[in-house]
Design goal:
Blueprint lengths: L1 E2 L10 H13 L9 H21 L6 E4 L2 H9 L8 E5 L4 H12 L3 E5 L9 H7 L6 E3 L13 H11 L4 E5 L11 H4 L3 E5 L10 E5 L25 H16 L1 H21 L4 E3 L10 E6 L4 H10 L2 E2 L15 H5 L4 H5 L1 E5 L6 H22 L1
Parallel strand pairs: 1-11, 3-4, 3-5, 5-6, 6-7
Antiparallel strand pairs: 2-8, 7-8, 9-10, 10-12
Helix pairs in contact: 1-8, 2-8, 3-4, 9-13
Bound molecules: pyridoxal-5'-phosphate (PLP).
């Protein structure tokens, strides 16, 4: 099996696997229990919080554990109506933001969805014009999951805070954390969502950074865990594994980036050598290394995906979450791409465990698919 869908999820790193196994096997105590065995679990939780905070420039008490990126995003958006009455987000967010935001709009709250240009970039002017001047929520993703576009979050957050210092800025950094340097203080943001399975950690665990002083309401009520903000017995093994995964990715970021960059260049060089006509959707100046949304001229994206699948190679069309639906990608549509262009597009996302051999095998089958298509058309 060759895995080129690293924006959908990632293989766990050895550091994350070791941590998960070790804690699951030996440290299963409930962190809320008062005896020593429980207190040890609590220590692991706080150690994890410290590691994660250190990786993103936050304070440990600003990290709240959640079950995934979707939960972190929902926590923020579902505050509309209690913390703020209006909000701004973008048309290219993940559905974990878009759907709760649409729900809030349907309830009558003033929600604006900013459009993007052909490179998936949000315009600063559009944001300026959309701000009402009242305290509100603005949520813009750091790195897009379909085309890898990286927004200038620092600049956007500054615009929002200058307009009204009580407005809060949230970023969905699910695709960015563990892959590019992120420092919440430097970005000047108030909230940030992350998910472990996107940075070689386990599935079903994530976190929400909430800057000290932001008065968010509790998301899940019950036993009072996470300072009464998110009740539920903590998944200590996954939390510790997430912390170790993030630490490992951050420590190896330079080398992994170089590796992925080389594979990306190699892939593009091989496509050119085979005379395959393609266009990368989005602009490489602001695109995450390793996320390639590519339109192959005169080829059907879904057909290519199926052909590669027959040879045990995993890629995707649109985002992982809507790969089974008939809908065209809302991101590519917002970028103004034509239907035929979208239909010939696939997402190939390269990760730290891919090899040159993987790239060669994939290009071999893409070439075969191109040849078969030409033959069928002639
Ligand atoms: N936000 C972005 C940008 C994503 O790419 C994803 C997952 O694809 C999510 C949120 C949801 O994260 P999770 O799978 O942890 O719920």
């Amino acid at each position: 099996m060759i895995y080129f869908d690293n924006a959908a999820t990632t293989a766990m790193s050895e550091a994350a696997l070791d941590a998960l196994m070790e804690v699951s096997r030996n440290q299963y105590g409930n962190p809320s229990s008062v005896y020593g065995f429980g207190r040890k679990s609590k220590d692991l939780l706080e150690q994890s919080r410290k590691i994660i905070a250190g990786c993103i420039g936050a304070e440990p008490e600003e990290i709240f554990f959640t079950s995934c990126g979707t939960e972190s995003d929902n926590w923020v958006i579902r505050q509309i109506g209690s913390v703020w009455n209006s909000a701004i987000t973008t048309a290219v967010e993940h559905h974990a933001i878009l759907y709760p935001a649409e729900e809030k709009a349907a309830e009558g709250y003033n929600i604006r969805f900013l459009t993007v240009d052909e490179n998936c970039m949000v315009s600063e002017d559009a944001l300026q014009n959309a701000l009402t001047g009242a305290p509100e929520l603005v949520s813009v993703m750091l790195q897009n999951n379909e085309v890898g576009a990286i927004q200038d979050i620092k600049r956007l957050a500054k615009i929002v805070h200058e307009r009204n210092e009580k407005s809060l800025f949230h970023t969905d950094a699910v695709q960015a954390i563990g892959h590019i340097p992120v420092n919440v203080k430097d970005l000047g943001i108030d909230m940030l969502s992350a998910s472990a399975h996107k940075f070689n950690g386990p599935k079903g665990i994530g976190f929400l950074y909430i800057r000290k002083g932001c008065n968010l309401k509790a998301f899940i009520l019950g036993g009072g865990q996470e300072k009464k903000m998110r009740s539920g017995t903590e998944n200590v093994a996954s939390i510790y594994s997430m912390a170790k995964a993030l630490e490992d990715n951050v420590n190896n970021m330079g080398t992994v980036h170089e590796h992925v960059y080389k594979l990306e260049k190699y892939f593009i060089a091989l496509l050119k050598r085979e005379g395959i006509q393609f266009r990368i959707n989005g602009n490489s100046d602001n695109r995450a290394t390793g996320i390639l949304n590519i339109a192959f001229e005169n080829l059907d994206g879904e057909g290519l995906l199926n052909m590669l699948d027959m040879h045990d190679i995993c890629i995707s069309i649109g985002s992982a979450c809507n790969s089974k639906s008939q809908d065209r990608s809302h991101v590519l549509q917002a970028m103004g791409l034509s239907e035929s262009h979208i239909d010939s597009s696939v997402r190939i996302s390269i990760g730290r465990f891919n090899t040159e051999k993987d790239v060669e095998t994939m290009v071999k089958w893409i070439t075969k698919y191109r040849d078969i298509t030409i033959l069928a058309d002639s």
